[in-house]
Amino acid sequence: MMGWLILLGFLVLLFGSLLVIGKLPRAAYELTGAALLLSVAGYAWQGHPGMAGVSVEPAEKPNSFDDSSIDARNEMGERFGSAKEWLVFSDALNRGGKHGAAANYLRNGVKEHPNDPDLWVGLGNALVVHADGIITPAAQFAFQRASEISPEHPGPPFFLGLAYAQSGNIDQAKAIWTELLARSTDDAPWRKDLESRLAAMERAQPSLPVEPKPAN
């Protein structure tokens, strides 16, 4: 009801403005009134004057960011250095569901610090989150770049394997993590977590037995 009263009040105000300010001639009264009534009819047909206003929120993706990935990254990072403030701020953006902004922020980070493997790992993670768990070519490039800068860095293979696992490519994740585990020292802080993840994968999807090769 309130919507109708506001609409009618607006029409009266508009018609009055046409009379006083626009000096509408008397001969045009009926034509102008008919046009205004026609607009009301059109609004009544397609609009919803009695409906309460709807607040439109910015289009953002659901918050798929996992805080546990920060703990894993902290274990595998090279104590960050210049990457720390970039990673902390991008984490805050991801927590708020601003995944695109987080990825763009880290793109700027690798431009300023192109030889920082932790920033490249963070960018790879942000791109995967922004793509709803899909490993895009840009994310693969980021992980690969981190590996090229620091071949012994455990972050790139770990998070690439994690992305494959989350997207359902279990065999690829197993292969990457098995190789990482093989080159990890016994006292590596990430070893126990990696072993646990591999064991859980094996329980969920056991590896196929290797068939013996036929004798010649």
Element order: H for helix, E for strand: HHHHHHHHHH
Hey, roughly how much beta strand do the residues contain? under 5%
What would you say the CATH architecture of the largest domain is? Alpha Horseshoe
N-end to C-end Cα span: 90 Å
Largest sheet: none
In CATH, the topology of the largest domain is named Serine Threonine Protein Phosphatase 5, Tetratricopeptide repeat
Number of helices: 10
By secondary-structure content and strand pairing, the structural class works out as mainly alpha
Instruction: Identify low-pLDDT runs.
Output: 20-24, 40-64
Brief digest:
This protein has 216 residues and is mostly helical. The chain has ten helices and no strands.
Tell me what the structure shows:
By secondary structure, this protein is an all-alpha fold. It folds into two domains: 2-46; 68-204, Serine Threonine Protein Phosphatase 5, Tetratricopeptide repeat, CATH 1.25.40.10. The protein is built from ten helices and no strands. It has helices spanning 2-20, 29-46, 68-76, 84-95, 99-112, 117-130, 137-149, 155-166, 170-182, 191-204. Helix 4 (84-95) packs antiparallel against helix 5 (99-112), helix 5 packs antiparallel against helix 6 and helix 9 (170-182) runs antiparallel to helix 10 (191-204). The relative contact order is 0.08. The model is unreliable at 20-24 and 40-64 (pLDDT under 50).
